[in-house]
Predict the structure.
Amino acid sequence: MVVDSELSEIAVDRIFRALADSTRRDILRRSSIEELNVSDLAAQYRMSFAAVQKHVAVLEAAELVIKRVQGRERLVRADPKTIAKAETLLKQYQQIWRDRIDRLDNLLATDP
Amino acid sequence: MVVDSELSEIAVDRIFRALADSTRRDILRRSSIEELNVSDLAAQYRMSFAAVQKHVAVLEAAELVIKRVQGRERLVRADPKTIAKAETLLKQYQQIWRDRIDRLDNLLATDP
DNA sequence: AGAATCTACAACCATTTGGTTGTAGATTAC
DNA sequence: GTAATCTACAACCAAATGGTTGTAGATTCT
């Protein structure tokens, strides 16, 4: 039985790995609100431009953000589809647990 | 504005980090279905007992599973509360994006 | 054209991660 | 009591991660 249906395990690894860093979560949040270039993002954190660039690359590899070229800028925006996929995955784990509870309930109800 | 409300950033890091490995996700799935000891889990994977033990420890540190002592065994079961929290976090990101869409819609509707 | 801005990317470093083997402590079975 | 089972934990190793600085390529501004 497979929990995942449309994403490869590697892709799921990348999504959760990308979400496992507060700087990246903040980049995701900011780029959910408005499209930003990498310099604007970098200005928000106490780390080098290159470090923020790497964080954006991790989010991009996970397909959590999309980068668009406009002149010399790279505009970053969140991709809500991938976030939705991650949420769906967690829902499936919860569903497994709910099914288990249901089975226990039925057991207790039918066998008093 | 803070996305998280009750979990520390470090705790969120640990949750997503723990989910970023297919072996750990499988352990979580199996321990969602039934309580298992570490040996039973280890038998499922092509890696050493100690490696599986470490994976369980990562899940435990993230509070995604709970370990219970019974005799010489350590019984592992998923903690649905933490899974639910992770799902809630992702929902919040989606909500930010939906709010943005709503704002754009309103803008387009009121200013033709 | 020249300067400033935005980005890419390489090289490097310390720490963490994911695996291994090996040893030892409890608990259970015989 | 002894053997088998289940677990904990240390020590070690290779690879990945998260940061740095430095250099260079486009693009825009004056």
Observations:
- The longest helix of chain A spans residues 80-110.
- The radius of gyration of chain A is 19 Å.
- The first strand of chain A starts at residue 36 and ends at 37.
- The mean pLDDT of chain A is 89.
